[in-house]
Structures
1.
Amino acid sequence: MAEKDGPYLVHCTEGKDRTGFVCMLIEMLCGASYQEIIDDYMITYDNYYEITEQKDKAKYDIILDKNLIAMMYTVAGSKTVELKTADLSAFARAYLVKAGMTDIQIDGLVDRLTK
């Protein structure tokens, strides 16, 4: 993605595991807010299971905590980070550097995805 023009296809069975992680990581990297990431991720649960914050807050909160928030903490490298106010982009960048990407590759990815 950092070296080729789109379109890009990222998928898994339902969009909440592998795809959910990749999309969350890209959204963090490109500057999406905490709430924007939550809203995007939870669409899958509405689409597949009709679980929304309004329809079933208990299930919604469990899914959010056990899945998305856990993945965000993994990228952040700590469970003590205040995700709502943290620089999520910096966490995503550090995560990708640790995974082997260079700053130039990351900049290229952000450039392609935000222009």
2.
Amino acid sequence: MELGTILAEGKTKVIYTHPDDPALVVLLHKDGITAGDGARRSEIAGKGAIAGRTAAHVFRYLAREGIASHFVSAPADHLTVVRRCAMVPLEVVMRRLATGSYLRRHPEVAEGQPFDPPLVEFFFKDDAAHDPQISEAEIVAQRIASAAEVDQMIATGRDVCAALARAWAAQDVTLVDLKIEFGRSPTGELIVADVIDNDSWRIWPGGEKARMLDKQVYRNAAEVDAALLAAIKDRYRQVAEMTGAF
């Protein structure tokens, strides 16, 4: 597919104008993997195509579940065509089990404590400030989103989380938590945007943390070498195949 001009570039993707339709853009999924707000960076050849496959599988599944997103098509594994959106600068984290950064902020909570319904936390997207947590009241006060939009992000986030939890449970995998982002379409519609891939969640086969298949393997590693990156690529490839069953 022919690409237009570059609109923006992040740690894991490049956004291009669509060659034919100004209402669309094209995401090119890069081979990079990062952690610690980009402090750790590596390249895994072919990761972009694997991530693109996973994201396409997830967005097609969500569409069948009646959840709107910006996804249009995937003309190649490493390319995703999406509706042009104005991104809301928030990460919306849905927690089904207590782990990770939540435990660091709440050491009195036992790891694995369930949240039903999923606990929703918001983080303002700012790498320099390490994506600080932000309250619903602050989001509204700072005019990042309206109160109605905050409520919609919570409701839609829980719908996304529930749908993906069901899909993973069918393969005996526990969805532990999930990060999603939202964008506003030109008509003002708030929809799920960006990507949902293996960097977006924690997934534990059989509910066992030691068998995790997600990006946390990279974050937890004491050091990064070729063997680790090969093992991570194998996990990402496995996830792309498993999400194909959604």
